[in-house]
């Protein structure tokens, strides 16, 4: 697995924590060991530019996902093919504001956004109620299991 994490902000980000989360999700969803992912942390100005360019919406957002090879999850018997999963772009300052409103840490919010975005890159969506239930149930299970495994180690 190749997971590149870059922080282009002044926010403190433990890049290894995001690599560990991505690896955990990759393994849980049976992605090929050579799957590639990029996670980029940007400031509000850069995020706003991306938000306008790609979503035609003003203002910065918390996270954007840019799929590449349209990979989907595999199974234990049949792992997903090798490929480039895509890019996740996170804005720590927006995530921090959301975390404060939700009553948890900025790190937990950014881990949630990362997990959410990886699922989007794998084809999950939440436009319809049933899609939302499936995606958010999986997201919750993956994130809680990951966080529990980190506390145990």
Automatic annotation (TrEMBL):
Binding-site residues, Zn(2+): 116, 120, 126
Pfam families for this protein: YbeY (PF02130)
An annotated Gene Ontology molecular function: RNA endonuclease activity
Chain's gene name: ybeY
The protein's Enzyme Commission number: 3.1.-.-
One CC-aspect GO term: cytoplasm
Function in brief: Single strand-specific metallo-endoribonuclease involved in late-stage 70S ribosome quality control and in maturation of the 3' terminus of the 16S rRNA.
Subcellular location: Cytoplasm
Keyword Endoplasmic reticulum: no
Protein family (similarity comment): Belongs to the endoribonuclease YbeY family.
Cofactor binding remark: Binds 1 zinc ion.
GO terms of biological process kind: rRNA processing
Protein name: Endoribonuclease YbeY
Keywords, sorted A to Z: Cytoplasm, Endonuclease, Hydrolase, Metal-binding, Nuclease, Ribosome biogenesis, rRNA processing, Zinc
InterPro entries in alphabetical order: MetalPrtase_cat_dom_sf_prd, YbeY, YbeY_CS
Cofactor(s) listed in the protein's UniProt record: Zn(2+)
